[in-house]
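ok here's the first one, seq then struct tokens
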Amino acid sequence: MFVYKIADIKLSAIFIKRKNMIEQQIIDKANYCLNCINKPCSTKGCPMHTKIPEFISMIKENNLQEAYKILKENNLFSYICALICPQE
């Protein structure tokens, strides 16, 4: 029983470390995008006129519900558009 508890603690620590790394990567990518000079994803560059910079700002702030609202306010198929968007 004791061995399982130690294994659970170690596994939990690994998951927490991994989660923190992923969150930091998201923040780094968001900073990179928000500091872009050309801003090809701005509403002028997006055929659906989705507010991509605002969406990225909400993701960076970990405000996922507001980010979701931004995506859904003008396009119910944001996921599909993200897959075929030429701006990447």
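and now the second one, same deal
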Amino acid sequence: MRIADAAKEALCSLNRPATPNDIYSEIQKKNLYQFGASNPVSVLNSAIRRHTLGSKTLQSTPLFEKLPSGQYQVIRQSSD
């Protein structure tokens, strides 16, 4: 599982917008990903930004959107 996938699963589990710290706590609680970094929240934040709509560092299909509050939420897919 990629970090971004773990973040998406954590946000879906929380069922509300959340900060990277909240997302990290949920990832740890559910044992979704094991971080080897000394600053895992920073690594998580970078991974989320790389998958955030409108981000300058967007690397693939966006999974998240950043709210004015600084929290992130999962982009809901339309059911066309």
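notes on #2: DSSP finds three helices and two strands in the chain. Helices lie at 3-14, 20-30, 40-49.
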